[in-house]
């Protein structure tokens, strides 16, 4: 099973991976997606497994274009993001058997090492009934990492095909 790594270890690892930390994280992912984590991609939207998931099976859906506010997003793209979120939540329910699934649209006010203002949607499977929404959006309790085999199995389980 995937194992937890500390917030400090995750931030250190992410810092080593980021080519240009001052640039938008999502734009960097869109330009150089980790193909082994991409679950869906079209001209407007990319969905991928979070490389640093707070919960195992965490999916991120983002606009390919750098958009930072809901008012900038074409209605069709916004609707498409949330339809994909619904589909991934359904896949998580079937494959991972969480007690609940959180779907949240988010974008940070500032560009940070592990988040950015770029519009994106999180789909997070929740495994414990006592988990509060705020707890799944912090790395304070660590994030998950897995072996290449575990990532491949997760991608296969959550694929929309």
Tell me the total number of β-strands: 7
Helix content: 25-40%
**Biggest sheet details:** 5 strands, antiparallel
Q: What's the SSE pattern? A: EHHEEEHEEEH
Return the average pLDDT rounded to an integer: 89
Inertia-based shape: globular
Under the CATH scheme, which architecture would be assigned?
2-Layer Sandwich
Approximate strand percentage: 15-25%
Radius of gyration: 15 Å
Distance between the termini: 24 Å
Structure class: alpha+beta
* CATH topology group: HIT family, subunit A
Please list the strands of the largest sheet in the order they lie side by side: 2-3-4-6-5
Give a quick summary of the entry:
With 161 residues, the protein is α+β, with helices and mostly antiparallel strands. It contains four helices and seven strands, in the order βααβββαβββα.
List the helices and strands and how they pair.
Layout (H helix, E strand, L loop, with lengths): L2 E3 L1 H11 L7 H7 L6 E4 L3 E5 L9 E5 L11 H22 L3 E7 L13 E7 L16 E3 L2 H11 L3
Antiparallel strand pairs: 1-7, 2-3, 3-4, 4-6, 5-6
Explain the overall architecture:
This protein is of the alpha+beta class and 161 residues long. The chain has a single domain, classed as HIT family, subunit A (2-Layer Sandwich), CATH 3.30.428. The chain contains four helices and seven strands, in the order E-H-H-E-E-E-H-E-E-E-H. It has a five-stranded antiparallel β-sheet, covered by helices on one side. The protein has a two-stranded antiparallel ribbon with strand order 1-7. A hairpin with a 3-residue loop joins strand 2 (38-41) and strand 3 (45-49). The radius of gyration is 15 Å and the shape is globular. The two termini are 24 Å apart. The mean pLDDT is 89.
């Amino acid at each position: 099973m995937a194992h937890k790594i500390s917030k400090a270890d995750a931030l250190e690892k992410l810092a080593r991976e980021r080519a240009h930390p001052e640039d938008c994280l999502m734009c960097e992912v869109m330009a150089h997606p980790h193909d082994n984590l991409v679950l869906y991609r079209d001209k407007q939207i990319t969905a991928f497994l979070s490389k640093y998931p707070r919960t195992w099976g965490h999916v991120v859906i983002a606009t390919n274009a750098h958009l930072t506010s809901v008012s900038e997003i074409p209605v069709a793209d916004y609707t498409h993001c949330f339809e994909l979120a619904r589909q991934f939540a359904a896949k998580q329910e079937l494959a991972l058997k969480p007690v609940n699934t959180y779907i949240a649209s988010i974008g940070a006010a500032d560009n940070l090492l592990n988040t950015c203002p770029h519009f994106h949607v999180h789909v997070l499977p929740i495994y414990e009934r006592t988990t509060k929404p705020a707890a799944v959006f912090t790395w304070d309790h660590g994030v998950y990492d897995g072996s290449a085999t575990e990532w491949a199995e997760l991608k296969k389980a959550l694929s929309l095909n």
